[in-house]
Structure formats: structure tokens, C-alpha cells
Amino acid sequence: MPYMLISTQIRLENGPTNVGDEYSDPDVMNYLGARKTTMLGNNFSEYNVDEPPRVVLDKLEKIGFRLLSMTGVGQTLVWCLHRETE
């Protein structure tokens, strides 16, 4: 999967960071040390890490992801990344 979104709440900018959903590449999630969780009341799962977004972005750059865009949505910061596949 060449696209990836990561996000965090503005008040939690030092972590945790949401790094994927239930369809995310398991190898990438393992590399990030992410844990899969389901919040009470949600019918979907998310992957999270304790590190801040800056650390996650550095790790993803090392495996070929490049930042496409970043935005704020309400109280959430969102980064969109892409990795070229062969």
C-alpha cells in the first residue's frame, strides 16, 4: 500500500500517534512497533505508537515514504505520505 496517513490530536503532539487502520501494511506496522486497538463504540481498528509524529515521520522516511501534505482538521493534525512501489 503506497499511501499512508498519520495523525495526532493537537494537545497530544508528543504522542501517541495514529499510524494506520485495520487495512494497513502489517510489515510497516511491525517496523513502527504499532499496536492495533479498537476504541469502545467504534466498528474499526487503528494502529497507534507512543512516539510523537516527528519520530514516526523520520522512521517512515528511512523506508521510502515521502511527505505529500500536512493539514489541521479541527483539533487533529494529519500527514499524508506516499511510497513508490516497484
Automatic annotation (TrEMBL):
Q: Which terms in the Gene Ontology molecular function aspect does this entry carry?
A: GTP cyclohydrolase binding
- Alphabetical UniProt keywords: Cytoplasm, Membrane, Nucleus
> Family, per the entry?
Belongs to the GFRP family.
* Gene, per the UniProt record: gchfr
Q: Which organism is it from?
A: Takifugu rubripes (Japanese pufferfish)
* The protein, known as: GTP cyclohydrolase 1 feedback regulatory protein
What GO terms in the biological process aspect are recorded for it? negative regulation of biosynthetic process
Domain of life the protein comes from: Eukaryota
Alphabetized SUPFAM superfamilies for the sequence: GTP cyclohydrolase I feedback regulatory protein, GFRP
Presence of the UniProt keyword Nucleus in the record: yes
